[in-house]
Amino acid sequence: MSSKLKLGIVGACGRGSGFKVACDAIADRVSLTAVCDTNAARLPEAAARFGAERQYTDYQAMLDDGCVDAVIIGTPMHFHVPQSIAALDRGISVLCEVPAGISIAECRELVLACERSNAVYMMGENFTYLRSNVAVREMVRQGLFGDLYYAEGEYLHELKKLNERTIWRRKWQTGINGITYGTHSLGPVLQWFSGRRVTSVCCAGSGHHHRDAKGDLYEAEDTSVMLCRMSGGGLVKIRVDMLSVRPHNMSGYSLQGATGCYESSRGLTDQDKIWLQHRDPEGGPNASGYDCTYKWEALDEIVEQYLPDWYKSGSEIAKQAGHGGGDFFEVLDFIDFVESRRPCPIGIHQAMDMTLPGLVSQQSISSEGNWLPVPDSRTWTDDTDGRV
Question: In Å, what is the CA distance from 142 to each residue of 36, 135, 136, 191, 311?
């Protein structure tokens, strides 16, 4: 390997284009040697934008040419596993978009590929890098919430028009019932519940009220809600809705512990708010016991003291990147991971913890919402079949 890591961007004309700010910021450590996309007409423009030496419409050819040490995969979700495995089997490290896979069986194949490869894998769940989510994670780490026992995550993003332009979304996100795109909601929550995973889920939907451009009802129900039982105790509720007609309010989170709680903003004049018992020692039930004097604080008023140094040092650059800075921080973490500078925040098993519950929810919603176990990828070997 040369002094600089040779990096390739896959899906460079689409989602992959969002990683330019990050690549520019670490140009002293990374050489952007190749871009790949099936859109041959736009590929030269992408190559020029990234300053890439080579451009490919054939992903396998790029891998076989020996021009990359690592790839960032920003392609449609049904390509994530085959493209990740193809790179890993050639000793090429992978940062892959979410979700990790579209079936439990192929997720198992990805886990086995990671185990046999000398390269590394990271899933790029950028919502875990949102400023408020990072701050809450640090407060949890410091024990300010006490024992965690309940959380919520929501992804409310009306995408019907985009569905018709990107057919893969129509098939894999709204063409299947259940939680098909849940890592943005579940990922940050799982990092708050550090060391715990989802052991079982049930899922139910709100019914079908929207049709596609052909006049057909979407296979996905408008809103799907997944309940998750956590190892070590606790309950998590995940809601995903990509069909309902409503104002934009893409992500929402809630966290409850024994000594603290957090509620993210819900749009308009609302703001992220938090209550920590140690900051409100005089609060408590009133004389009647019906009401209380506990008071919310705006998270913004205290957030800076809980943001870790790595976040503060990169925050100005991150503001130029997409997804609240997540597109910068995830690339930085990945490069640090490849160079063994920092443990991986979302390695293969964390990626499975974020992906598998949604896949099992699709089975639950088709079986009248029955509770079903979620497999633990840490137990998968060549002798297991990856089924629930």
Answer: 43, 11, 10, 14, 17
pLDDT for the residue 249: 84
Beta strand spans in the chain (E): 5-10, 30-36, 54-56, 70-73, 93-96, 121-123, 148-156, 198-205, 224-230, 235-241, 251-257, 260-263, 273-276, 297-298, 372-373
Residue with tokens 């089975």: 363
Residue 36: name the closest of 88, 79, 89, 100 by CA: 79
**CA-CA distance, 202 to 225, in Å (whole number)?**
8
CB atoms within 10 A of CB 44: 11
In this predicted structure, what is the pLDDT of residue 384? Answer: 57
What number of other Cβ atoms are within 10 A of residue 350's Cβ? 21
Residue ranges, the chain, pLDDT below 70: 1-2, 383-388
The amino acid that residue 275 corresponds to is W
Query: H helices of 203-325, where?
Result: 309-318
For residue 155, the cross-strand partners are: 240, 251
Residues in the chain: 388
User: How far apart, in whole angstroms, are the C-alpha atoms of residue 157 and residue 313?
Assistant: 31
Residue at token pair 């030269």:
44
Backbone angles phi, psi at 16, to 5 degrees: -60, -25
DSSP string, 92-161: -EEEEPSSS-SSHHHHHHHHHHHHH-SS-EEE--GGGGSHHHHHHHHHHHTTTT-SEEEEEEEEE---HH
Inter-axis angle of helices 348-365 and 183-192, nearest 10: 120
Buried b (16+ CB within 10 A) or exposed e, 255-293: bbbeebbbbbbeeeeeebbbbbbeeeeeeeeeeeeeeee
Residue 386: the pLDDT is 44
- At residue 341's C-alpha, the angle toward residues 337 and 346, to 5°, is 30
341 C-beta neighbours (distance < 10 Å), count: 11
Structure tokens that stand for 261 in this block: 């709680």
Please give the pLDDT value at position 2: 55
Contacts of 290 (CB under 8 A, 6+ apart): none
Task: Name the class of domain 128-308.
Answer: alpha beta
